Amino acid sequence: MSQANLQRVWPEMTEDLSPEQMALAALRAEIDAVDDELLRLFQKRLSIAARVGHAKDAPHGPHTKLRPDREQRVMTRMLSGAEPENVDAVRGLWREIVGWGLARQGQLQVHVWAPTDPTRHFDGARQRFGMAAAIRMVRDPQAALRFAAEGLGVAVLAVNTDDPWWLGLRREWSSLSVFEGFGGEVPTSLAVGKIDPAALPQGRRVVVTAGGDAGDGGGARRWGINTHHGWTLALTDAQLTPGEAEGCVGAIG
């Protein structure tokens, strides 16, 4: 960048700057220009997100407006185009961008229940849903499930506990679907909400079944998460349909 252009950006520039100072000033001017463009595009994206929200307000059934499948496709596309050293930064940035876009359609309410190590579960929810979401800790998993079942928001509940709340996903909370897992390959908490089954992410299915986690005999592998009185909460590679007899209660990407 020429000194004349630099002086247009920063009129206080003087001609007695060293070459090193000039080089640094030029880089900062480039960053300022990029920031201006990022701001313009981000605000444009928020405006479009608000219009998407209005389109979603058309009759669409009893489910929330969350589309985990769409978010998964966007994230996959962004990460595929990211430089390897930027993948983590891009993932975090896009979670925030998507979260603020969703907020233009109504602030997302998230109830988190985790009697052990609550900070870790809260942080997992924050990283997934972004700073725009209203996230609060609650003391009763059944109240969190009721909150989600009424369509008021979503619930994130720990599964590495003695409370088998997940059995309710086949019983009184059958309107809810698991759509996200936190804590690693075998999750320690799950996100549930009134998600359209067609909008679940591509990935392992979450099942609640009688018996162990040895699999179904069809070659599909299972990963046990928790057990209670002969019932098992597990992940499976089998492509099951939520709500069917196989005990599928959702999916995680």
UniProtKB/TrEMBL annotation:
<feature type="domain" description="Chorismate mutase">
    <location>
        <begin position="18"/>
        <end position="109"/>
    </location>
</feature>
<dbReference type="InterPro" id="IPR036979">
    <property type="entry name" value="CM_dom_sf"/>
</dbReference>
<dbReference type="GO" id="GO:0004106">
    <property type="term" value="F:chorismate mutase activity"/>
</dbReference>
<dbReference type="GO" id="GO:0046417">
    <property type="term" value="P:chorismate metabolic process"/>
</dbReference>
<dbReference type="InterPro" id="IPR002701">
    <property type="entry name" value="CM_II_prokaryot"/>
</dbReference>
<protein>
    <recommendedName>
        <fullName>chorismate mutase</fullName>
        <ecNumber>5.4.99.5</ecNumber>
    </recommendedName>
</protein>
<dbReference type="Pfam" id="PF01817">
    <property type="entry name" value="CM_2"/>
</dbReference>
<dbReference type="InterPro" id="IPR036263">
    <property type="entry name" value="Chorismate_II_sf"/>
</dbReference>
